[in-house]
Specification:
CATH architecture of the largest domain: Orthogonal Bundle
Helix content: 25-40%
Bound molecules: iron/sulfur cluster
CATH class of the largest domain: Mainly Alpha
CATH superfamily of the largest domain: Hypothetical protein, domain 2
Order of helices and strands: HHHHHHHHHHHHHEEEEEEEEH
Structural class: alpha+beta
Strand content: 5-15%
Radius of gyration: 24 Å
Number of domains: 2
Number of helices: 14
Shape: globular
Number of strands: 8
């Protein structure tokens, strides 16, 4: 499809020229002017931001990044942090395996690499939680290595520039080959960020602003009038639904029943309210079957409320149960956390939703 349009090195040059004037400002980024004057990005900042940005928007990451850098200014500080403090600081950002791997990686870099990140993709890939995307992003952005950084923005831009009609995910190798051919040897870090910024601000998913695009004359999809239709995608499989029960119990002294979730699996290592196992169901709207055994003996109230939350691979519905437990209640699952140590903000979003529902339910009638 690119036969009538000549894509040359000019494209990288045009993109970099556009980036020089339009680079987005981000707390972890060293802008093009500062780079040209010799300032280098802090690899710790690049790594931290890239891990946070996996599956998460720039807007959501800004405050978390600033908080982490202020709590743990150097990678050695993060490596020395308590696991629970890091998990609590991460709460609300989702995909909690990232936080566990973040800590592991900080400790490996500190203990085995003297606190200095390796500079090649190959070496970066050996670190916990660093996959091909993150390795390429760190190598390019932090160390200006000629690495091919592929994320959703880059895939979309490549699909359009080259009018690739093969649907995703099948098109990935083809899109990567195009991206590799365009990546310049010089200013590889700026170039990677330029393509990402173009995808985030101009070549957007639904309505690309081709009229102000710095590479419009070289874009095959614009020429063919199919820009907004690309990239094509294979039809999505509907997400399955899992259901279960969640138990909120409070002692008269204010202590709250909680449990530390297992290290592996969803929400691994996070503090949460006690839940039953989450079972898959055929009918996503069917009523949740009665709970078998709550985590402690007491007067449990079925609130009739459900928490609904969507994870990457499934929807979750949890029936909320509430108990005003006795002072000497002894749980079979979880433990009572003193009220002074309980902060619902340190819990994952699904748990916070349950807490909010119960607060509504337990409010005295007017
Ligand atoms: Fe995207 Fe339009 Fe630019 Fe092509 S011309 S890269 S479709 S914004």
């Amino acid at each position: 499809m690119r036969d009538e349009i000549e894509i040359t090195d000019d494209l990288s040059r045009d993109l970099l020229a556009w980036y020089d004037d339009h680079a987005r400002e981000m707390p972890w980024r060293v802008g093009p002017a500062a780079r040209k004057s010799g300032q280098r990005p802090n690899p710790y900042h690049v790594w931290l931001s890239e891990v946070m940005l996996q599956q998460t928007t720039v807007a959501a990451v800004r405050d978390y990044f600033t908080k982490f850098i202020s709590l743990w200014p150097r990678i050695e500080d993060l490596a020395a942090a308590q696991d629970a403090d890091v998990m609590a600081a991460w709460a609300g950002l989702g995909y909690y395996a990232r936080a566990r791997n973040l800590l592991k990686c900080a400790r490996v870099v500190t203990d085995q690499h003297a606190g200095i990140f390796p500079t090649t993709e190959e070496a970066l890939l050996t670190l916990p939680g660093i996959g091909p995307y993150t390795a390429a992003a760190i190598a390019a952005i932090a160390f200006d290595r000629r690495a091919v950084v592929m994320d959703g923005n880059v895939e979309r831009v490549m699909a359009r520039l080259f009018a690739v009609e093969t649907p995703l995910p099948r098109a990935k190798p083809e899109l990567k080959a195009h991206a590799a051919a365009l990546t310049p040897a010089q200013r590889a870090g700026d170039y990677a960020q330029a393509v990402m910024d173009l995808g985030a601000t101009i070549c957007t998913p639904r309505s690309p602003a081709c009229g102000i695009c710095p590479v419009m004359t070289q874009c095959a999809a614009r020429k063919a009038g199919i820009a907004a239709e690309l990239p094509r995608k294979e039809p999505k499989q509907p997400k399955p639904t899992r259901v279960g029960h969640i138990y909120l119990a409070f002692r008269p002294d204010g202590a709250v029943l909680v449990e530390q979730r297992p290290e592996t699996g969803l929400l691994g290592g996070m503090l949460g309210f006690v839940t039953s196992p989450w079972a898959g169901v055929d009918d996503p709207a069917a009523p949740i079957v009665a709970a078998l055994a709550p985590p402690l003996e007491g007067e449990w109230q079925d609130t009739g409320q459900e928490v609904r939350h969507t994870f990457t691979h499934f929807h979750l519905r949890l029936r909320v149960h509430l108990c005003h437990a006795s002072e000497n209640a002894s749980p079979q699952q979880g433990y009572f956390l003193p009220r002074a140590k309980f902060r619902v903000a340190d819990m994952p979003t699904v748990m916070r939703k349950a807490f909010d529902l119960c607060r509504i339910d337990t409010r005295p009638s007017p």
